[in-house]
Structures are given as structure tokens and as C-alpha cells.
Amino acid sequence: MAQTLLPLIHKARVQGLTVHVARSGLSLGDEASAVALEDGRVGILARIHAPLLGLLPLRRSRLIGHFGPKASALLMPELDRGEGLRLRVVGVTPEFLAGPGGPEVHVSVWVRP
For residue 67, which of 41, 58, 106, 107 sits 20 to 30 Å off, Cα-Cα? Predict the structure, then answer.
């Protein structure tokens, strides 16, 4: 029987983007995962488009950024607890559409009660 998930964070902006959003292949609904970083923040891993030798299509899991301090403080106990978090991409603004604030990626976080 499927277990109900509750929203923990409805929409959080990914800080410190490490990928070119337009070339990453990220789209709405893509899965992501959270990982504790050495500096106490919570990083976000997602499967992005990373062709092998520039020719063969391939998707690899890569760190795309991290949560801000408030979201990291909220997620750390859940990561320590070991329960499965469900992260989904809920917003993508690539470089060619971005304003002065730059490109954006937003994710939502759901957790088991």
C-alpha cells in the first residue's frame, strides 16, 4: 500500500547553481535527491544531460546546487532520520529567459509522516 507524503517545502530556490540550466535538460517534474554536504548545507543532486564525448546521449546524476540556510536547517533532521525524501523540480528559468537575477531552478520537498 502506498504511503502518503506530506509537503515539507512547497517551493525552494536552488542556491549556487553549478550547471548551465538551458543545456542541463532539467524540466518540470524531474526527480532530484538531497545529500548532506561537508559544510552543513543540503545539496541537491539531479540527473542532467551530459553527453559522452559530446556525441552519445547520456544522463548523469550531478550536484546542481544547494538549499539556503533555512531550508537546510529544516531538512537536516529528515536526512539524519534516513527516511526517503521526495524532491521534484517545480520551476525552471533558463539563462535566455532569465532577468537580472540570473537563471533559476526551484524544487519541492515531500516527506513521509
Answer: 58
Range of the domain at 17: 6-111
Can you give the pTM of this predicted structure?
A: 0.89
Q: Which cell numbers hold the place of 59?
A: 544522463
Residue 59, domain member (yes or no): yes
Please check whether residue 1 lies inside any domain of the structure.
no
What does each of the 113 residues of the chain score in pLDDT, given as a tens digit?
467 888 899 999 999 999 999 999 899 999 999 999 998 899 999 999 887 777 778 888 999 999 999 999 999 988 888 777 899 999 999 999 988 989 999 999 998 87
Neighbours of 27 (CB within 10 A): 8
62 with 48: CB under 8 angstroms?
yes
